[in-house]
Amino acid sequence: MINSRHGEKLAEDIRKIFEAAGLKAEIFPGAEPNPTDSSVTEGAEIYKKENCDLIVAVGGGKPMDCAKAVGIGAKNGGEINDYEGIGKVTKGPLRLSR
Question: Per-residue confidence at 17, pLDDT binned at 50, 70, 90?
């Protein structure tokens, strides 16, 4: 899954690189400057539905934060707010690339 807020062109270029290498890639356009609970849930649902193996975050801190939250939701289930606080994420992190 490609997580980018830097425009469709860059995300599409990255998708083409993955596909040229024989890999399937999904673009998640929900990397908002301040990701909402619903956008994180949407990203986690896309990740699971498309059987993704990793998340590629394109950009700075905001897409990275969104990607980490999507990864938590995809791996652990539930709503992202379920994981506020220390020690609430029980399953290890997903593979994430920046």
Answer: very high
CB 75 within 8 A of CB 93: yes
Model pTM score: 0.81
For residues 52 and 96, the answer to whether their CB atoms sit within 8 Å is: no
CA 28 to chain CA centroid, Å, is 7
SS (H, E, C) the chain: CEEECCCHHHHHHHHHHHHHCCCCCCEECCCCCCCCHHHHHHHHHHHHHCCCCEEEEECCHHHHHHHHHHHHHHHHCCCHHHHCCCCCCCCCCCEEEC
CATH of residue 87: 3.40.50.1970
